[in-house]
Amino acid sequence: MKSKVYLYDTTLRDGTQGEGISLSVEDKIKIALRLDQFGIDFIEGGWPGSNPKDMAFFERIREIPLQHAKVTAFGSTCRPNVAAAEDDNLQALIASGVQAAAIFGKSWDLHVTDALKTTLEENVRMVADSVAFLKQKGLTTLFLAEHFFDGYKANASYALEVLKAAEEAGADWIVLCDTNGGSLPHEVYEIVRATVGQLRTPLGIHPHNDSGVAVANALAAVQAGAKQVQGTINGIGERCGNVNLVSVVPNLQLKLGYDCVSGEQLQGLTQLSRYVAEIANMTLPNNQPFVGHSAFAHKGGIHVSAVLRDPKTYEHIEPENIGNKRRVLVSELAGQSNLLAKMEELEIDLSLDREKTREIITRIKEREFQGYQYEGAEASLTLMLLEASGKLKNWFTLDSFKILMEKAAIQSITSEAMVKLRVNSESVHTAADGNGPVNALDNAMRKALESYYPCIANMHLADYKVRVLDENGATAAKVRVLIESASNGEKWSTVGVSTNVIEASWEALADSIRYFLWKEGCEEAGHLASAEARVGIVNH
Amino acid sequence: MKSKVYLYDTTLRDGTQGEGISLSVEDKIKIALRLDQFGIDFIEGGWPGSNPKDMAFFERIREIPLQHAKVTAFGSTCRPNVAAAEDDNLQALIASGVQAAAIFGKSWDLHVTDALKTTLEENVRMVADSVAFLKQKGLTTLFLAEHFFDGYKANASYALEVLKAAEEAGADWIVLCDTNGGSLPHEVYEIVRATVGQLRTPLGIHPHNDSGVAVANALAAVQAGAKQVQGTINGIGERCGNVNLVSVVPNLQLKLGYDCVSGEQLQGLTQLSRYVAEIANMTLPNNQPFVGHSAFAHKGGIHVSAVLRDPKTYEHIEPENIGNKRRVLVSELAGQSNLLAKMEELEIDLSLDREKTREIITRIKEREFQGYQYEGAEASLTLMLLEASGKLKNWFTLDSFKILMEKAAIQSITSEAMVKLRVNSESVHTAADGNGPVNALDNAMRKALESYYPCIANMHLADYKVRVLDENGATAAKVRVLIESASNGEKWSTVGVSTNVIEASWEALADSIRYFLWKEGCEEAGHLASAEARVGIVNH
């Protein structure tokens, strides 16, 4: 029988404290539903009373039946010299209608006297009174001991006295917070182990990543006896973030043998991580442990053939278990077998003969020599493979484009693009402004194509990178443009190379749209649109 | 007496295995100089023999005297059934002219028989023979035991036999590699501790971050007796990256009391991290532990006043110790002395009063908020300081420019620029083609200015980088352009920011020329050129 570790997610509360993170009530509902589906035990939705948005979330989520998770409200103990029953903050927790409440309180003597400006005894009273009040109202109650590790180092007996007061008042959980994120794993292990021995109440851990060791701190606490981990998806949160549950869960479950979620739920980990990133409008680092796009990417000839023969020689876990995929990086596509493995991974079946395969490999090498880089642009690679095998549809071709930029001394620069495309032998001529030349070009292309292929409205550009390939030429040098596009949480990358940054951008833009049309299974416009509709578009 | 831990940086070799990371020889030289300055003990420059770029690096770096670091070449043991002295790979190490070599070899029995396809005995011979050969050639020799932790778990006695063979052959260091990045801190601690007891040779640790615990693994290994940590700046590297030295060093030095670099060098940590990110054209996450822009950012009223009263109540270390800054939402008054120090460093003497200094600081903060970054563009900073103190000459001003780009289906794109400048109240109107819009703009500007300021012929653009600042907006997002210019071996960098890449490039181009004119001590054209000469130029 595996030992259960409970997952407490605070993406919707502590996570939104991260710089640049902002979630609407609708966003929070969407994320909560996915967290529930993944098997999270407690979903902390916000701090009722601190702002209207959080209260609106609790009102909305009450109406939605969840499969498993307990929606939890966050708050603090009552104020000094105020009875818990009279405290606005605790009243707001009750009013939010949740089943569980998590309240933080002081356990570091310095904070009691210097920040709270009250006595050590009064702080103990506030903790006990607040916990007892919430329990009496029928809530599952978690007491979060703020700055516990610093407090324990400064005055262990006082820190423990605070926890015991919460226990005696009936707390269901006591959670040890490393609020500064300054503790190291060996300290967390020792202090949790010492604390577990003093209490009957199950303990949780709430680490922050200021020292870059939050995941290790969570694991150390569990190994020392903690039964709950509080963190966020993708480690978002104030300063350096909360502990990343996306890394904690597979370590606990696949490596240390604890039980967090079902095997099937764990296979949704990568999707969950990418979904939350998408909703929060943040770029997920390719190198994120476990779920990153590069996490199981392999380079190097001998290495690749060994991985394909026996993945465990080079991989610490099987990517399938967490819903990620093994990737073979194309720059090493020396052999036919690698190319075939790549096509299987990209889920394209071209049944190529030996001659054709060799042709394609030669073409990849030529393009890489010119400066294309397909390891970061697998959508462009897919298009090249489709093209080489004659299976690429002709959704549109370029007749010409012109871009005009003008700047007068004190005014901002303006950018205009004119694009002439051919769609099913008809000429479509559009013009658009933009915030810069590439944006203008993108706008003009969309204007030309959206009526033929309305699904284009569902894709957007997510990232744009420019790299100068040969530095000695500076502005006359070759540049590589990488464009990342997204639609419904899925991402793909395309590449263009030219001495002209605009021409390279055009290539990557056109590839990005073509790849999306291929993935969506779009037919060429001639087969779709009626003659009348097309006439309308031509004069658009 | 604090115990010394040696730092081994492999940013230039393992780091460049990271997806999307590509460094030119010039980039590698720049980074190596900064690593040396920071106090890194070993700088791994590449794998000579594996590619011409790495060999070119070793040839260049040989000519440059370093203060402290040993430049190290990476390679592998000799091949099966080949004597070390006959092995091309080891010959290439010697030919690279380095003082130190790091060679990897197998220590996991499964890899010996399945990947290398040789016998366990032959593998031991290869390790011993290769180490002995390098020692005999006078090199400091590090033996890197690949997959050591997996190997130890599978067959501890064989894994140790391999290490002992390296020790007996005279290895100066034995480095335990967690090649898959799959080990957890408690395993690393136990295995390193067991291994230390078996050997006389000092041990190093080489962790990867696939489990999100690489920093903790490095700390655990040092606590168990390892004396060297191998990692990269910002944790770049294959898959999920190598261990991030930027997080390891302050943990070791400020929290665990080990000695890595001097206190003054440690204050350069944030700068080093940002510098490498800039050169590698990667976006540093704001939440990166220790050095991130948000790492010491404080929100919230009570919190902020508490931080200002007593930072240690809310911060795990003092940000000044690593060259980062506390950020609060109130305007920071600090920085006057910093600005004066900076001016001294830039060798500009402006004798500013207190009022003026405060004005300049406000202006820098505003511009940084807009996305300018002066750490990588000190020439632009210098111009701003000169301008703020009224000491910037008016060599030229922009009236307007226009850029036209045209592409027809099968032809290459063409770029033309028209520039109207005002030089000493005369209007100069020129046009030029270029290899792309920025090159055309550069050509047209030079055409306009060269007759007034002939020294411009001696400067050229050396590097051009574009960074998207707000990734969410993609092609409509703000971009930062960094231009590096050079003249007679001296280099300077300038910056421009706009939503339009061309406008940002213009700013950086204009700054680049202005800075050069200032450095050359050029007077404004009106004071130089005769009336006749100017007439000739206007009609140019």
Automatic annotation (TrEMBL), chains A, B:
Limits of the Pyruvate carboxyltransferase domain: 5-270
Record field: catalytic activity: pyruvate + acetyl-CoA + H2O = (3R)-citramalate + CoA + H(+)
Matching PANTHER family: (R)-CITRAMALATE SYNTHASE, ALPHA-IPM SYNTHASE/HOMOCITRATE SYNTHASE
SMART domains, sorted: LeuA_dimer (SM00917)
Superkingdom of source: Bacteria
Keyword Amino-acid biosynthesis assigned: yes
Protein name according to UniProt: Citramalate synthase
EC number of this enzyme: 2.3.3.21
An MF annotation (GO) of this entry: 2-isopropylmalate synthase activity
GO BP annotations, alphabetical order: isoleucine biosynthetic process; L-leucine biosynthetic process
Pathway participation: Amino-acid biosynthesis; L-isoleucine biosynthesis; 2-oxobutanoate from pyruvate: step 1/3
Top EC class for this record: transferase
Keyword annotations from UniProtKB, A to Z: Amino-acid biosynthesis, Branched-chain amino acid biosynthesis, Isoleucine biosynthesis, Transferase
Any Pfam family the entry gives: HMGL-like
Family: Belongs to the alpha-IPM synthase/homocitrate synthase family.
